[in-house]
Amino acid sequence: MGPLKLARMAWSNLWRQRRRTIITISSIAFACFLAVFMIGLNDGSWGPVIDTAARIGGGHVTVQHPDYQDKPALNRTVTGTGQLVERLRSVPHVSHVLPRIVGQAMLSTTSESMGAGFVAYDPAQEGPATLSILDAVSAGELFKTADDRGIILGWRLARNLGAELGTKVVYTLTDKKGEIVSGLARVSGLVRTNSPAVDLGLCFLPIGAVRRTLGYAPDEAVQVAVFVDNYRRSDEVAAAVKGVLDDKTTALTWKESQPDLDTFIIMKRGGGAFFSALILILCAAGIFNTLFVSVMERLREFGVLMAIGFNAGRLFGLVMLESLWLGLIGLVAGAILLAGPYYYLSTVGLDLTKAFAAGEQQADIAGVAMSMVVKMDLHHTSAIAIASIVMGATLLSGLYPAWKAGRVEPVESIKLV
Fold first, then answer.
1. In the chain, N or C: fewer CB atoms in 10 Å?
2. Measuring CA to CA, which residue among 159, 162, 155 is closest to residue 196?
3. Among candidates 67, 74, 361, 397, which has minimal Cα distance to 210?
4. Quick one: pLDDT at residue 385?
5. How many CB atoms lie within 10 A of CB 19?
């Protein structure tokens, strides 16, 4: 008997116990549904968080002084940013390359003083795709030029400083030579992101004004933020970027520059993967039970097949083909079951507002604002992994029953009633 006839025979055998087969296929489809649901929501929720962290930090890949990560200071700079930006823009999958100055400052008004982080940027080059605060201004306006005299504060920081729009703020920094220097600005805007790390601890300044205050050259910055077309390519782009850098600079992925966020995401993704694996294991146990019971009920039949010329290898292959059919049909049924919910969750999303914080549109996740509406986005590698695991679990579940079928003794099994 050829492989095609054996496959047809395996297909027919599945439907001899129609109810049991349908229940098994349903369990496979439901397991696929739950795995895709959990992993898809994970992929869909953490992608925007990573992009938001990049937009308010140093990009998906950050080019900076080799010692800055361990000892951040404003005297550890990147020079020649103009030429560097042009070189980096030619790297595949890079969408934006922008110089920034970041650090710590002391902010003072006539009534209060507070320490805060700051990000100095060029308003002529930055947009919502690279700087998240451009979508979060709740009052006032953004800078018009790099030499603007304004300052943008998180709304909680402004409240603690007793500052309003138009209030004078003195920002004090330590320059390249270790000298204390100060700049004067007026509050031109307030941002509300619902992330305490931003709303309470961050301000934004025009890069030209900060360069003058610190005594930087026109092509000098603390970081060069590199943005990629897909955050999953960060490692690949970082490796390519390092190929065009000298020993005075280094490139870090968002995972290296923001290790707290990376650790948080790893833990959450690990939890989702664990529960998905548990579901698939339970599914595999059900498949094993179905196949094993099917084999035990057909021992006499297998004995007859052995007596008329079937060998152990063909019987083994027959049962394995039955498990293969179960897996394939289960995957197709799972895809049909998923079609509607996946389309809805990938377009409309899942609103978690009531579950986390009523009335809030964002939540703080490891210092980064996360939208309360989560959309499903299953990456193709995750889909392939789920399908491979389901098929692998199905085939592994059939190994012992197939081995058992191949060891049938014709004389003894034919006597069974």
1. C
2. 155
3. 74
4. 84
5. 7
Contacts of 296 (CB under 8 A, 6+ apart): 404
* Dist. CA 119–CA 147, nearest whole Å: 14
- Give the three-state DSSP class for 289: helix
Q: What is the pLDDT of residue 1?
A: 58
3-16: pLDDT as tens digits: 788 888 888 888 88
Taking 50 as the pLDDT cut, the residues of the chain under it are 358-359, 416-417
- Beta strands 137-140 and 350-351, pairing class: unpaired
**pLDDT, position 358:** 47
Q: Which residues pair with 364 in a beta bridge?
A: 369
Residue tagged 């085939």 (tokens): 395
CB 76 within 8 Å of CB 217: no
CB 133 within 8 A of CB 191: yes
The answer to whether 405 and 319 are in contact (CB under 8 A) is yes
Cβ atoms within 10 Å, residue 52: 22
Q: How far apart are CA 250 and CA 371, in angstroms?
A: 32
- Confirm if 265 and 247 have CB atoms less than 8 A apart: no
pLDDT at 305: 73
Can you tell me the distance from the alpha carbon of 120 to that of 138, in angstroms, rounded to the nearest whole number? Answer: 19
> Do residues 191 and 237 touch, judged by C-beta distance below 8 A?
no
pLDDT number for residue 187: 94
CA distance 392 to 24: 16
SS3 176: coil
What is the model's pLDDT at position 159? Answer: 92
Confidence at residue 359, expressed as pLDDT on a 0 to 100 scale: 47
CA-CA distance, 285 to 116, in Å (whole number)? 55
Question: How far apart are alpha carbons 127 and 370 in whole angstroms?
Answer: 19
- Please tell me what DSSP assigns to residue 232: G
Q: How many helices (H) and strands (E) does the chain have?
A: 14, 14
CB 264 within 8 A of CB 363: no
Query: Can you tell me the distance from the alpha carbon of 387 to that of 56, in angstroms, rounded to the nearest whole number?
Result: 36
pTM greater than 0.90 (yes/no):
no
How many CB atoms are closer than 10 A to CB 78? 22
